[in-house]
Amino acid sequence: MKSYKSFLLAEGDTSDATNTEMAICLAHNMNTIRGKKGTHLPQEELFAEAQEMAGIAPAKWNKVTNKNELLAIGTAVADDPQLGNVGKWLIHSGTGRATTHYKKGSDVTPKTDLFGNARNRFSLKKAGDSGTGAQLMSAKSGEASGVMRGAIAHLQAAEPDVIVKGTRKTFDILEKKMLATSRNDLNVEVRDSKNDFAKWYHDVRLPEVKKLAKKNKIVDKRGKGLSDTKFKDHIKDELSALGVASTSTKQKNLIDGLMIARPDFDNKMNQYIKSNVAVGDVMVSAKHLKNVSPKELTKTKLKTQIIDVLKISMDSQEWKEDLATFLTTNASLKKWLVYEAASGLYKFTGNASTGKKYTGDETAVANTMLVFYEGGIKTKENTFTWSMANASLADNIDVSFKGSGRAKYIKLGIAASYEPIGTPLMEETVNQIFEEEYNNILLKEGYFSDMVADVKGKIQFAARTLWENIIKRIILKMKDWAAKGLTYLLDVMGIEMEGSVAFKTPSW
Questions:
Q1: How far apart are CA 453 and CA 458, in angstroms?
Q2: Are 128 and 90 in contact (CB under 8 A)?
Q3: 3-state DSSP call for residue 420?
Q4: What one-character-per-residue DSSP string does 68-85 give?
Q5: Pick from 140, 44, 81: nearest CA to 380
Q6: CB neighbours (10 Å) of residue 462?
Q7: Where are the domains of the chain?
Q8: pLDDT tens across 301-358, in order?
Q9: What is the largest distance, in Å, between two alpha-carbon atoms of the chain?
Q10: What pTM value is reported for the model?
Q11: What percent of the chain has a predicted confidence (pLDDT) above 90?
Q12: How far apart are the first and last CA of the chain?
């Protein structure tokens, strides 16, 4: 059995997002049916009709394990006044198919997760979520190219006098260089590969930096030689600066005069392949290796693939910088990049934006952002208006590996929200949960009069309910963070763990 590292590498399970989408549709449709046929309709008949109107195959819902929990969330969203009049039925479309107008893209998944009437075609996001479900886009070469071309089409329609500069280099990255990174024969995991190389690199690099520091008379503020901890922190940040660390750092511990040059690092990578050091637990799951010849899993072969991963990672860091420069140069393009990534308007219609909410015939285009939490709806916004106000999301593009099994490629990603990793995220989340529960429980009109008769009992009941809901939601949030990996969870909680350990994946 693989160590906890296989848990850390999960790309992100999207099944919960899909199941929540279905639950919201079911809850809304049951409300509609009750309104038409009364509340005494047999539950089984009520649910079957709600499923049919949502376009959800019974077999698909039957696979859901946490039905009651999801239906509770779905009901909270469906009953929230912010949802408004969305039409009689909500239809689940997130796993459907539509026709794409991206010339080099092949993804036909609608941007709309669920839809009602023409003004309510929802892209559903969970409040506080920064995982894969909260991505506006996470696209490989052809898809990323399509989003960028769609954004340019929107900009040119809205501001025909604007000239977009630097497109040749940009599309060379998106359509050629990123495409060349696609692999379907990788026998190693990306994060594990980086960690395995880092262990070897630390061992061979430490005596080098100590020797170089002594030669260059690099000392601390007191004029004394630096400690091994300082050198180790430098090496850790050195790998991050090169783009080959499994977890990026802020690179505050780099020591002037000790940073390795790229040619010397290339030599180090060749040295690693030729070394006799054993390869750690880096391979993909055994189920993906059933038909792979043992000759492809030798120490040298695995090391060669590890170095391939590192080189692609370094290249992708350069591409990220180039794309960021392109967007900075063409600042007016950012809001349209966010809009196309969020709505898919150009992708599914082939047309540029008219500058207002799309309510045409194509239901795959998302025209409303619906952000929910366990207690209901946080925000419901016009996708166009939201995108125009959130152009800054394009300042945080992600160019990194994506994939599963033996298939990996470099993707271009844009998150639906920006959340800093580290203790502030934990603090912000707890504060947000408290504020929402306080408003929901203590400030709802008629709460006290409906619940408990005496004043003391009312206060105690409200306080207890508030506390229980806060604890429950924080635990659920920590489960979400843990699902993205132990490293992510520890970062959020402000905990740094050094060393290595193997243990079973937690059962939440």
A1: 7
A2: no
A3: coil
A4: HHHHHHHHHHHH-GGG--
A5: 81
A6: 17
A7: 5-159+333-409, 190-281, 423-492
A8: 999 999 999 999 999 999 999 999 999 999 999 999 999 999 999 999 999 999 999 9
A9: 86
A10: 0.78
A11: 68
A12: 19
